[in-house]
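Internal QA ticket QA-208
Title: Verify multi-chain structure generation after dependency bump
Assignee: T.L.

Test input:
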Amino acid sequence: MTKRLLSWLPDFITRHVLIALVLGGMAGIGFMVFLIEFDHYTSSEAFCTTCHSMTLAAEPYRESVHYLPTSGVRASCGDCHVSPGVFAATWDHFIGGKDLFRQLFGANYDDPVVNALHLPEAAFSAREWFRKRDSATCRRCHVQDAIIGKRADTRAIHQEDAAGKTCVDCHINLVHQPVPEKATFKRDAWNRMVEEQFDLAPGTAEAILAEE
Amino acid sequence: MISSFVRFVALCLVAGNVVAAKVSLTPDNWGLPAGEECVNCHSKSSSGLTAQWKGSAHAEAGVNCLDCHQASTEDADAITHEGHVIATVVSPKDCGRCHTREEKEQRGSVHAEAVAVIKERMPAMVTNLAGPAIEAAGCAQCHGSVVKLLGNGKLDPNTWPNSGIGRVNPDGSRGSCSSCHGRHEFSKAQAREPQACVRCHSGPDSPDKEVYEASKHGMAFATHRDKMNLNAETWVAGKDYSAAPTCATCHMGAAGKLPSTHDVGMRNAWNLNTPVSERQHLIVFEDGGKRELPASMDAPRRGHKVPKMDGSMGKVKMVATPERRRQAMTMVCRECHGKDFANAFMDQFDGVVDLYNNKFAVPARSIMQALYAEQKLTPTPFDEPIEFTYWELWHDEGARARHGASMMSPNHAWWEGIYVVSRNFYSRFLPQVREVAGDSADALIEKHVTSRDPHRWMSKPNASSPILGVGSRQVGDD
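Actual output:
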């Protein structure tokens, strides 16, 4: 016979059930804390740049206004590239696992030339990601209603002309190496630019991409 | 009578055949609805630019930002801008969508070919004498840059911003309408003002601003500017205004039956910015392209193949001889001057060009060629002082003298022109020839200079010089 704990509890809450609930609850809390800490750590610049290829993305970032604002409000990798909310953040990290897979089994992204040649596709997919979420991560810090600006009509532009647009429709190429929008991107011109930048013979870019 | 009629028809073929260029398209060809978005935002973000446009004939007709800046995604310089595909550079091809006649006329003109004109000079000027920074801020701002697109979609800051008149645009077209028709108001009056040309046609090598201001034409303009009707819809000399001619009047403007033209060099019989001036044929190709050929060459016939400026072969549509070109220019003079007056002025002008050519330019060029042939000079430009002297002789004072005579500035023809040519020829060039030529100097100078009539005075060292305060004029002195 099972001993009753408190008379107002339903009959099926036996001691074992109660222990299971408490332990399960604690495990649940522990799991959530783990997720939060996991998301927090894996969103940090220190974590992202443990992959060499990401240090290449970090170079222009460290010279950008998002890294060095006069206000001191620094946006880290995850502030822009990981969704707010623990579940969305976890999901983003899960999906982002493909980057790790590619780092290990894909092209040699650690090579600055290979990295630069693949950069446009990375930029296109990042922009797509921002657009689908209505630039949710921008809006973490930038509240559209609160944008005043230093020039005369910045506020009016963000109230009137920005209607129906999302942040990245106008504001791109702020942090990383500038890449044209997908619609007007010219692969040939990009390859020539990379070759010029790294002092390579014309056609080297195509040869590198064909090898992969 | 018949031949002059034929000549006139031929001129019209070069220039088009309407007096005032009007856009012949209907307004449904412009006014893209999405362009309104540009206006709304740019009224705030760059209100000065938008205000200029709002005061323009474009705004009045409903031509908005996107009509000129629209682009296809495959265009080399297409970018996305707040959701629209646009191009920053508006080329003559873009303007020519509506302004068809003007675009066709300027194609192949000395303005549109201004980059090709200095192509051979650029290595010496940019690499030897200056550096790439001066190419962007100097040369290319007048002649035009070769606009370069970076792989990241941005315009190479070494080549843009630029409104040089012969700019090579990403779409392959050459020229920049905004060079004279400043964006974004595109004022007619501005392009008719002499000031429109001053940005480039001033300074030591082409002091056309200074020449014009010092001339009776410039004097009349300064005094009667308020009578110039500069904002008029049509601007035919002698009809819509007669107070003074501006640069645009003589080189481009309509006068009497002479149609206006956007081929600014069409009415020039001479090439004045070369070491030695030659009268020039104007060759018009079937495809609308043009080039000049010296009159010493036989004019090619219609249908013949002639190399174009870019090296490709073109089929000749027509040839305007220097005489025809001079006739066109003289037709402008005739709105205010009599025939004899105009022709006699042209004789005075031609006389200075012939004097410059025969007395200084041809001998100097022959001597330089001999010095290079005899390896007294290295082929590298500007590594020897005489190369600067020779360059300035034709490019600076030589051009100044010829331009001064062409547009009636006595000072530029003589004191700033031929006098400086003469001084530098005798007191710098010839002494430097002696320095570098060594033993062969005497023979070289004898052959090209002292044995020739205009220089025989040098063989009379004892002629007195009261002008310098030495001796006095003797009976029997020349």
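Spot checks passed. Residues 148 and 387 of chain B are 33 Å apart (CA to CA).
Status: verified.
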